[in-house]
Design a protein that fits this description.
With about 575 residues, the protein is an alpha+beta fold. The strands form ten sheets. The protein has a four-stranded mixed beta sheet, covered by helices on one side. Strands 7-8-10-9 form a four-stranded antiparallel beta sheet, with helices on one face.
Length: about 575
């Protein structure tokens, strides 16, 4: 490993970090915000520190505005404002992708790099920010006072790639097919019915208020009902959207070709690169050599070694550094009786040296969370109780009457987290705690998690910035899919408070009301040391220097291809 290199800024080389102004959630009620709202250029700052700007609100609303961690990587502010107004004829870019055998949105949910560029919803997250929801296929929308009835006004002139019109009837019919393929996509956001109440008006009824409805509707993509009726809901020939890029061709195991939509309607998302080739290359070294040789124009990667190799080989393109998902640790009092004791859980936090892990595994290039969730994200609640102090940990164990040498358990893990847990086992061994490692095959991982047979886990538990209470729907209640909160065993009163808060969260009328309760759940769990913070592993991207306006969104780093253009 190369010598330690402190990373004080998110971006490397000439890239700048831009954080764009947010609009209120209900702004869509009277129409869409100005699509040309100008961002402000900011000096890259320490991402550990949230924005503490005070904002007025109703009692109970959060007074601290936490800025999303999602950053928009653009070479300069001018690149964004000076991007072309049309397709750059003859331009072609080659990137790297994963294989997506089925390209319909309900069969390709995690493949946002593809679906978010070829399909569209009624609304969209401007530059990927959950704080800035704007109209797309719908030019405006409003809701009833009880948040149960939502009316969307469809933009005139929107067409699918097959030439058919995207009006209210098409939206409703598309959702009928979508519901047939994936009913949970609708029931999860309380959608009870949807109908065309005019040629260009769609009315949606919810069975109960859904505080994240607007954010979720951005991913409820509209597909040509004509194509779906012709080919069926599982045939890739029906993969016809309204997006800025057309899925031109797909070769299994080889890649995709996307073509800029020549009839695209929405200026803010007008595509610029005419042809984007996505090649499927699995080997990391092959990807890097392809970039150095000029065979590809860019790719994303996570290996620190690849970052250094590119630098050492004189790569002169734009190299970007950011961070990946949250990876909190959870302690299972069901399988490790000592975890029932508050001081023991707190002591484990003191025994796990995240700084040392970050240095060893990521050459100090990861980001140590201050909370269970991603730094700066909507659910992030920084907590000053997470820190390493071995001596304090030993004192805590002694105060509880627990001899560290008496603790022994096995951590069952999947192979991808092996190095992390081996390092932790070594740290615990220094204080006398024996943690054996038992690798599991990936297919066995879910079974033991679901049955609660694990002892310590590390992972993001379904967290997403657009759905901050996602994890709690998986991990809190006994009937949930993967129970990771075990305070019911040792602190029933606290557990009941968490259940009550959870109920308030899922029945909240507004995003802000939901977020207050979501953050309270995080606070309960953190201050009880039922879980602890982890490390966001580094994430990198490298692109040819001729490519401008490199914009990524969400913790999954989906690239918004339509902003990218060539400096020609």
């Amino acid at each position: 490993m190369k010598k330690v290199r402190s990373i004080l800024c998110i971006l490397i080389a000439v890239a700048m970090v831009l954080v764009f102004g947010a609009c209120a959630k209900d702004s869509g009620k009277e129409g869409t915000p100005d699509a040309t709202a100008k961002p402000t250029e900011q000096t890259p700052a320490d991402t550990d520190t949230p924005d503490s700007t005070e904002e007025p609100g109703d009692p109970g609303e959060p007074t601290e505005k936490v800025e999303s961690k999602d950053t928009y990587i653009i070479n300069t502010v001018e690149d964004y404002y000076n991007r072309p107004k049309q397709i750059q004829k003859g331009t072609e870019v080659t990137l790297i992708c994963t294989d997506v055998p089925s390209q319909l949105p309900w069969n390709a949910v995690p493949e946002g790099w593809l679906t978010t560029n070829i399909y569209e919803g009624l609304l969209y997250l401007h530059l990927g920010s959950v704080d800035d929801i704007r109209g797309l296929i719908a030019e405006s929308w409003e809701h009833s006072d009880d948040y149960l009835t939502w009316t969307f006004h469809i933009r005139d002139g929107v067409k699918f790639w097959d030439g058919t019109v995207c009006d209210a009837a098409a939206v409703v019919k598309s959702w009928d097919f979508y519901n047939e393929a994936s009913p949970a996509s609708f029931t999860n956001i309380k959608m009870e019915s949807w109908e065309a109440t005019g040629d260009m008006e769609v009315t949606v009824k919810l069975s109960a208020p859904c505080s994240y409805f607007e954010a979720s509707i951005t991913r409820l993509f509209i597909v040509s009902p004509t194509a779906l009726q012709t080919y069926g809901i599982n045939d890739n020939k029906a993969a016809v959207g309204t997006g800025p890029y057309i899925l031109d061709s797909y070769t299994s195991g080889v890649g995709f070709v996307l073509k800029a939509n020549p009839d695209y309607y929405f200026e803010e998302r007008t595509p610029h690169i005419e042809t984007i080739n996505f090649n499927i290359i699995k080997d990391e070294n092959t990807k890097m050599m392809a970039l150095l040789n000029g065979d590809i124009d860019g790719y994303q990667f996570s290996a620190v070694e690849s970052f250094y190799n590119l630098k050492d080989n004189g790569y002169d393109g734009t190299i970007i550094q950011n961070y990946g998902n949250a990876n909190p640790f959870f302690f299972n009092a069901k399988t490790v009786p000592e975890f029932e004791i508050f001081e023991v859980r707190q002591a484990f936090v003191r025994f796990i040296d995240l700084e040392a892990i970050n240095m060893l595994m990521y050459d100090d290039m990861g980001l140590i969370q201050k909370s269970l969730w991603t730094v700066g994200s909507t659910g992030d609640v920084p907590f000053d109780g997470f820190y390493y102090d071995k001596e304090e940990g030993l004192e805590l164990m002694a105060s509880a009457g627990v001899d560290p040498a008496s603790m022994a358990f096995t951590a069952k893990i999947i192979d991808s987290s092996g190095d992390l847990f081996v390092t932790i086992a070594g740290q615990l061994e220094k204080v006398g705690i024996k943690m054996d490692i038992e690798p599991l095959e990936p297919e066995a991982n879910f079974t033991f998690l679901m049955n609660g047979d694990w002892t310590i886990t590390a992972g993001n538990s379904g967290y997403g910035d657009a759905s901050p209470y996602g994890p709690w729907t998986y991990i809190l209640r006994p009937e949930h899919l993967i129970k990771e909160v075990w305070s019911d065993i040792y602190n029933p009163e606290l557990y009941q408070q968490m259940l009550d808060t959870y109920d308030k969260m899922i029945t909240a009328l507004t995003w802000d009301e939901m977020l207050v309760n979501c953050r309270q759940l995080t606070t309960y769990l953190q201050e009880d040391y039922g879980a602890m913070n982890g490390i966001q592993a580094p994430w990198f991207a490298a692109f040819d220097k001729s490519l401008k306006c490199l914009v990524f969104s969400t913790e999954n780093h989906f690239q918004q291809l339509f902003y990218m253009y060539k400096d020609v």
